[in-house]
Design the sequence.
């Protein structure tokens, strides 16, 4: 099961194709909600970077919500980038969307970004504080970072069990994520919850450079 868990950090091969479908279906509602929250909270950005863009659901919503923005999607998995490219083919052809293989370092050429988001990827960063410092380096001084995530108690039981065994980081409270953001040079984040407070479907942490 650790092998299957690791596929969520970078889908590849036959199992990766299944995981890509699961990501597109399972996270669609949360991605759409999250972009809706951002469109109401973040001033119109010129450059947006999504780290760990997966099959491109949030990219699709970003392109719709911010029609004048340049959007960059970054992911370590060529497999999910292929899915994101297919889903957003018109935006790629119009050069509104650029897709890159890699991590935050791949997006340095597009700095300073006005908005950087990462949805359900903070668990997979070997050192979340270090990765967020890299995010801060590509973010404009007045930019926003948006982290979409779920707390351990609200995750499916297999994720609670196997993610830590695969070396991934889970959070038991919003305060833990807030501390990491502040260590990386961001303000105390604003938190928003998707769905019912007792059974949330995900959470959003929104912060700016301190």
Sequence:
């Amino acid at each position: 099961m650790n092998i299957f868990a690791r596929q969520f950090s970078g889908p590849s091969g036959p199992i990766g194709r299944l995981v890509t479908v699961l990501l597109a279906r399972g996270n669609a509602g949360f991605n759409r909600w999250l972009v809706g929250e951002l469109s109401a909270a973040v001033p119109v950005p010129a450059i947006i970077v999504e780290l760990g863009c997966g099959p491109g659901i949030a990219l699709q919503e970003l392109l719709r919500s911010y029609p004048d923005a340049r959007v960059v999607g970054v992911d370590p998995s060529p497999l999910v980038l292929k899915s994101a490219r297919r889903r957003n083919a018109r935006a790629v052809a119009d050069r509104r969307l650029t897709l890159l293989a890699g991590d935050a370092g791949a997006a340095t050429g597009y700095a300073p970004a006005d908005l950087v988001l990462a949805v359900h990827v903070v668990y997979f960063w070997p050192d979340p504080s270090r990765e967020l410092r890299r995010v801060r380096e590509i973010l404009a001084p007045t930019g926003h970072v948006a982290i979409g995530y779920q707390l351990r108690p609200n995750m499916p039981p297999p994720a609670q069990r196997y993610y830590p065994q695969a070396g991934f980081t889970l959070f038991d409270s919003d305060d833990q994520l807030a501390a990491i953001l502040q260590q990386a040079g961001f303000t105390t984040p604003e938190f928003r919850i998707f769905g019912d407070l007792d059974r949330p479907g995900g959470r959003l942490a929104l912060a700016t450079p301190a």
